[in-house]
Amino acid sequence: MERENITFNIPYIKLRFYAEMLEDTVLPITKTSALRGGMGEMLLRQNCVRDRNCDACMFMKACPVNHTLYTYMEKKPDYVTGKESVGYLIESSDRSEFFEKGSRLVFHLILFGESIVYFNLYLQAFCQLGMIGIGKNKSRFQIMEVRNTEGEKIVAGNKVDMRNYKICMLNNYIAKRKEELGFSEGRYTLIFTTPLSMRYQKKYMDQFYPEALLQGAARRIQMLNYFIGREAKLPEFTQYPVIRSQSIKKESMKRYSSTHDARSQLWGISGRIELRDVPEECVEYLIAGEITHIGKNTSFGFGKYYLSSM
After folding, report:
1. Run of H or E residues at 183
2. pTM for the whole thing?
């Protein structure tokens, strides 16, 4: 069967969570790993019926964890070999460590495709996580509010108003951002605010390459196309941007997996890239990456950047 052309008609919703701390505490500088790990643990505790033995589970296709923590797809691109989590992202730019009782931690949850319908399971997981606590200090919190991108309240205390659960489309976001960026003569700046973990020419990158950035953005869109049931082919770029300059910082994030009872470190590079001669066909993919992130470990907040014109 011939693959279809790729599309940006991908539904998503970006949710802003306000978590109020229930005690004076200390949190890690990077919050996404603790939030992602804690959310996953709560989803497993609340929904797993086979002692977390996924390989032997007869309910895999219907499993709520498989539809929330992981990404269930009937078919996948050839390069996807493991359990991918393209259905959601967690973002947190708060690098504070010390929190007083009553202060708030703000983070974002972005849901794509069919993950959008599981909002209640994600909400329950974060509420349960707040009662148990995150990080080595088991910092407890309470979800006070959840808002949409327009600032409207979906959750306020114990009340949920799904009328404000407004689904967006990626193609509309791209059109809006193109208008905001205006005409730039192909000159843009990319700033990675979280580490990018990506392989290029069979090894993990220690600097930025324009081909890798564009191919990574395109693969992310292709995976989301598969997630919404569209077997799309990757675009064939006729040319790539030129990197005029770049600054690079190597970063790491500690991670604990309760499923495997193991600790590890996730590595990547962040920094600023000045691009020249950016073809028009590449701009939309770069804009899309602002929402989808690129590279590995995106469910932990990796690969987040924003684009600006020069």
Report:
1. none
2. 0.93
Residues 162-171 have pLDDT tens digits of 999 999 999 9
Angle between helix 280-292 and 170-181 (nearest 10): 120
- Cβ–Cβ < 8 Å for 227, 73: yes
pLDDT digits (tens, 9 = 90+) for 195-252: 999 999 989 999 999 999 999 999 999 999 999 999 999 999 999 999 999 999 998 8
**Rounded Cα gap, residues 35 and 43, in angstroms:** 12
Residue 157: Cβ within 10 Å count: 10
Query: Which residues, in sequence order, are CB contacts of 221 under 8 Å at separation 6+?
Result: 6, 8, 10, 232, 285, 288, 292
The CA distance from 162 to 34, in Å, is 27
CB atoms within 10 A of CB 21: 19
> In this structure, are residues 128 and 42 in contact, taking their beta carbons and an 8 Å threshold?
yes
CA–CA distance, 300 with 9 (Å, rounded to integer): 24
